[in-house]
Design goal:
The protein is an alpha+beta fold and 95 residues long. The protein has one domain. It has a four-stranded antiparallel sheet. A hairpin with a 2-residue loop joins strand 2 and strand 3. The N and C termini lie far apart (56 Å).
């Protein structure tokens, strides 16, 4: 019974601390600027962050560019996939 209560409490906390679309965009922009300082200085990270598609699943969330998952968020924390940023930057430079 205690395990069930702890699981329910964790789910409630996860639901209320699920990162928003804006938080995913901020985290992406910061990581983009760290990996690509020149493009970031020119606003590339900010522009690219607005090209992300946000998906909220209640207890966690993701953002995607095309069909690639760029970031995953839960419990108020957003993890940005740096390898995906490199691929996205290459695609943006080619177009």
């Amino acid at each position: 019974m205690k395990k069930l209560i702890l699981l329910a409490a964790a789910a409630v906390v996860a639901f209320f601390t699920n990162p928003s679309s804006g938080r995913h965009q901020e985290a992406f922009d910061q990581e983009f600027r760290r990996d690509h300082p020149v493009m970031g200085f020119l606003g590339g990270g900010l522009v690219a962050s607005h090209m992300l598609t946000y998906h909220g699943y209640g207890v966690f969330s993701t953002s995607e560019f095309g069909h690639r998952t760029m970031s995953v968020g839960a419990f108020g924390i957003v993890h940005v996939r740096t390898a995906a940023i490199a691929n996205m930057a290459d695609e943006l430079l080619k177009s």
